[in-house]
Amino acid sequence: MKPAHIIVVGAGPVGVVTALASAQRGFKVTLVESAAVVDDSPRAATTHSSTLEMIDSLGLSERFTAEGLVARYFDFWDQPNHMLIARFDHELLKDETKFPYVVQTEQHKLARMGLDKLKEYPDVSVRFSTRFESLAQNADGVSVTLEENGEKETLRADYLVAADGASSSVRKALDIAFEGMTWAERFVVITVRNDFEKLLGCCFRNYLAAPTEWGNLFKVSGDDGMGRWRVVYPSLNDSADEAVLADGPVYERLQKICDLGAGYDIVHRNIYRVHQRVAATFHKGRVFLAGDSAHVNNPIGGLGLNSGIHDAMELCEMLTSVQRGTDDVSVFDRYDRRRRDLNIEFVQQQTIANKRRLEEQDASKRQAALDELKSTADNPTLHKQFLMRTSLIDSVRKSKTIA
Questions:
Q1: How far is it, in rounded angstroms, from Cα 352 to Cα 355?
Q2: 318: which residues sit within 8 A by CB, 6+ positions away?
Q3: What is the Cα–Cα distance from 184 to 359, expressed in whole angstroms?
Q4: Which residues pair with 284 in a beta bridge?
């Protein structure tokens, strides 16, 4: 049987995983990306147990772990009092997964190692500096018009997968609504060389609860393997981005986490708007949305990229079952039923709850939230239940029950 052809738009980690999983299942793949190179700006870096199992199935887990950092624990802190409230230990998942930990590997590394792996498959074409223009589809396939170096070309494929981000051109071409909201504050991301593990005695992943100045603090290895720490915090300041990211306000904010008595060694700074949005549907006909093109959320908990990888693997399994005749095209609706509903339940709801827990301003409610975290961590049964949900293992298992 002639292999089906899949066009994947977007060579970020979700697009690359989609392309690789498809190639490994015998599909012909064309991967297109409008940029000239993989975007290496600091973005998602936390990969949970459930996703590590998927990366392992692609043959990437050894390199993925070697280029990142293994993080067994994550901590919640009462930031104004510099007090550790609760520590969660992934080792409690040792009977549930091969990977009872998370790996802190920057998302551009996953994209690059996936691209390297794709070179092993002769029926794969990877095209950078190639922009999606338009599409047309019928019951038999999809025609996709691309633009490269000012020249337009139309390719015919059996399926099209949009992994082209929150501003997805494919989603817009399909006129699929992107429903949800935008948070009032902007999120600031500061990357420093200073070692918070030594300065604070913290682990690699930390959530800092404070009424107005909450934050996230976590470690990545950096491209040189020397280690970097990222600090994420909100800004309600109406000033221009450049003013919020200036040395003065950034140093002042970092000093509240740890007072060095001197400036920090900053290597990168960024500011961006954060949304909680889910596409009205994850597919139309033979065109599918995956990753940020289908859903976006705030970064607290590190769930967005993980959910996108889950989209990719679920989608490839489904298309394989159709290719092999195990299912017919009516199964396409199952992708929407599973991935959309699970994103709302396990990612949207959880990341919103994570943010509200950290930023609670009412003193009694804030204390109750911190007490609940402590009691959960202190109870082995509740502790494990919390980890099963935050690691998305529960989400993966529930997916299999949705017909």
A1: 5
A2: 327, 331, 332, 334, 335
A3: 13
A4: 287
Tokens at 56, concatenated: 């392992």
pTM of the full structure:
0.97
Furthest C-alpha separation in the chain? 68
Please state the CATH superfamily assignment of the domain spanning residues 5-72+103-179+277-356 in this structure: FAD/NAD(P)-binding domain (3.50.50.60)
Q: For a pLDDT cut of 90, what percent of the chain falls above it?
A: 97
- Please answer whether residues 13 and 113 qualify as being in contact, where contact means their C-beta atoms are separated by less than 8 angstroms: no
Helix (H) or strand (E) holding 20: helix 13-24
pLDDT in tens, 146-167: 999 999 999 999 999 999 999 9
Which of 312, 321, 308, 314 lies closest to 18, judged by CA? Answer: 312
Predicted confidence band of residue 1 (pLDDT cuts 50, 70, 90): confident
- CA 228 from centroid of its chain's CA atoms: 19
Dihedral in degrees, nearest 10, Cα atoms 281, 128, 305, 352: -60
The alpha carbon dihedral of 389, 391, 395, 396 has a sign of: negative
Q: Which of 49-63, 154-168, 255-269, 383-397 has the lowest mean pLDDT?
A: 255-269
> Within a 13 Å sphere around the CA of 266, how many CA atoms are in the beta-carbon half?
19
Query: Cβ(347)–Cβ(51) under 8 Å?
Result: no
Using the structure block, give the residue that is written with the tokens 């997805």: 168
Residue 187: both structure tokens together: 């999120």
- The structural domains of the chain, with segments of one domain joined by +, span 5-72+103-179+277-356
Query: pLDDT tens for residues 207-255?
Result: 999 998 999 999 999 999 999 999 999 998 889 999 999 999 999 999 9
Rg of the chain (C-alpha set)? 21
